[in-house]
Amino acid sequence: MDGHVARRGAGDLRQTYVIMKNEVLKFVRGRRMQIYILLLAVVLSLLTAVPYLFEGHGLSGDPEKVIVSYLSFAPTLVLMAATLFASVSIVSEYEERTALLLFTRPVRKRSIFAGKFLAAMGISVLMIGIYYAATALVSLAASGGLDGNMAVSFGLSVVYAFATSGIAVLISSLMKKASTSTILTFVALLLILPVISQVLAASGVDTSWMLDRASESICTVLPGYREMMNQLIYSLTGMTVVSEPDAAMDAAVMAGWGAATALASFLLFRRREF
Questions:
Q1: What's the pTM value of the predicted model, to 2 decimals?
Q2: For residues 39 and 175, what is the distance between their CA atoms, to the nearest angstrom?
Q3: What is the domain range of residue 166?
Q4: Judging by beta carbons within 10 Å of its beta carbon (0-12, 13-18, 19+), is residue 128 exposed, middle or buried?
Q5: Which of 56, 71, 80, 92 has CA 20 to 30 A from 102's CA?
Q6: H or E, element range at 83
Q7: Per-residue pLDDT tens for 78-126?
Q8: Number of folded domains that form the chain
Q9: Is 238 helix (H, G, I), strand (E, B) or coil?
Q10: Strand segments (E) across the chain
């Protein structure tokens, strides 16, 4: 009995690995990867070139300011990664049957789900890692230093990628078309969740458990970002409101969103027929 369970578990892991590998290759060869790489290139090029072309003095010699100028876009890039990759992970199986065609014998749905989720999550983390690495190289070249909180910001971005991927996969589990899933994921992450947070905050409800609020720590963990935002807010209102975040708590909130939505999407996927 134990040997049978062990063999079945090993078989599930092999199936998960094959599905994940195939999904990664599909992303690498697909148009969505090209779009995301182009997006990264445009963002990096503009952030690097604009100070030289229009401001005249080039990038700042202060590493904190350089890091802040680039990492302010990190949450948006994480959101876009979930939109382009995770949002099509499950729904594509109903359109293409890719995982079912890989094996001559029946494949478990949990292997399909795990392989596809891990592939989307892995690609997202890789792309965000490339952006952070490029930011670090630019900062070293322009200012000769780095912001010590950059690693914490990257860790928070990884957890945020997990949370946004969970939401994207949940939406993907409900949809019949990849294009619909992509649009709804983008709207949910960029518009619906922030609107809910604002409505709750206006009603006096604590919103620290909301995903969009927790993700703000990706930027606010950087001292230079807090200083920049407080200067801007003070010039308009006479107040300073951006304080140092509780990074561990925000990471836990984002991880909770990711775990809850991933579990819900798996349960929906398991009940849905091909």
A1: 0.91
A2: 26
A3: 2-271
A4: buried
A5: 80
A6: helix 74-84
A7: 999 999 999 998 887 776 665 555 555 667 888 889 999 999 999 999 9
A8: 1
A9: coil
A10: none
